[in-house]
Amino acid sequence: MTGSLFVVSGPSGTGKTTILRRVLASRKDLVFSVSYTTRVKRPGEEEGKDYFFVSEEQFEARIRNGEFIEWARVHDNLYGTSREYVDSRLDDGINVVLDIDVQGALNVQKERPRAVYIFIAPPSYEELKNRLETRGTENTEQLKIRLRNARWELSKIYMFQYVVVNCCLDRSVEQLDAIVTSEQLRVEKMKDILHRAGLDFSEVRHDDN
Ligand code: ADP
Ligand code: 5GP
């Protein structure tokens, strides 16, 4: 059975990374897809854990080689999802989660319609602004760009299957965790377990009884 692909998206500053870190720390059945980016490393970020940090030239070579499922220019930096990283894990039956921007998520939708699409929304536009300011990782100009992009990103919310409104962090973590769990309980995902338990009678016809 191949793994499930989860696509977590939403405006910058809405809390995607914070929620995902907590969910990933408590689940053994989900791995994070580490993206490539040309943005500069923030204090505390680690190569290969948060991102693979590359130059624009290296990134463009990867685009030319078709190495990304999707890539996008987000707030003036390039970000891309590695096809190899994601597909090798899905093929091994491991569930994978992406944390990508909204244009990226909509691009993945074209190629992977069966993935699970989750939008993380802020409680309000004002609170989004507060969170970005408090995080303090962008200068005033970059902050303006992120807030401007957030309006367009919020306009795409109905393209997603699930929405987590990130008011209280504990509740958001529970909700994302519940979405991942529900996906594992789909009948088609449970087939192997039912089979091993001797409960797979899918070949039995009504008149055999
Ligand atoms: P994103 O990954 O979506 O860009 P982050 O996870 O970096 O967002 O969160 C942006 C800021 O908001 C961080 O400073 C984070 O600590 C804070 N934050 C995240 N979730 C909440 C929440 N539920 N309540 C208050 N602050 C939050
Ligand atoms: P940050 O610079 O704050 O780490 O990320 C900025 C935005 O880029 C976030 O919305 C994040 O979800 C998005 N992002 C991270 N990796 C990728 C990726 O591989 N592809 C796309 N399209 N967006 C990404």
* Structural class estimated from helices and strands: alpha/beta
What is the spatial order of strands in the main beta sheet?
2-7-1-8-9
Please state roughly what percent of the residues sit in beta strands, choosing from under 5%, 5-15%, 15-25%, 25-35%, 35-45% or over 45%. 15-25%
Count of helical regions: 8
Estimate percent helicity.
Answer: 40-55%
Largest pleated sheet: 5 strands, parallel
Output the radius of gyration: 19 Å
Q: Look at the structure and give the CATH class of the domain at 5-34 and 94-196.
A: Alpha Beta
In the CATH classification, which architecture of the domain at 5-34 and 94-196 applies? 3-Layer(aba) Sandwich
Indicate the mean pLDDT: 94
Query: Are there runs of 5+ residues with pLDDT below 50, and where?
Result: none
Assign the CATH superfamily of the domain at 5-34 and 94-196: P-loop containing nucleotide triphosphate hydrolases
CATH fold node name of the domain at 5-34 and 94-196:
Rossmann fold
The total count of strands amounts to: 9
Order of helices and strands: EHEEEHEEHEHEHHEHH
Shape: globular
Question: Any overview of this molecule?
Answer:
- The chain is α/β, with parallel strands linked by helices and about 210 residues long.
- The protein has a domain at about 5-35 and about 95-195: 3-Layer(aba) Sandwich (Rossmann fold).
- It is built from eight helices and nine strands.
- It has helices spanning about 15-25, 55-65, 85-90, 100-110, 125-135, 140-155, 170-185, 185-195, and strands at about 5-10, 30, 35, 50-55, 70-75, 75-80, 95-100, 115-120, 160-165.
- The strands form two sheets. It has a five-stranded parallel beta sheet, with helices on both faces. Strands 4-3-6-5 form a four-stranded mixed beta sheet.
- A hairpin with a 2-residue loop joins strand 5 and strand 6 (about 75-80).
- It is globular and about 70 Å long.
- The two termini are about 30 Å apart.
- The mean pLDDT is about 95.
- The structure holds adenosine-5'-diphosphate and guanosine-5'-monophosphate.
- Guanosine-5'-monophosphate binds near residues 74 and 104.
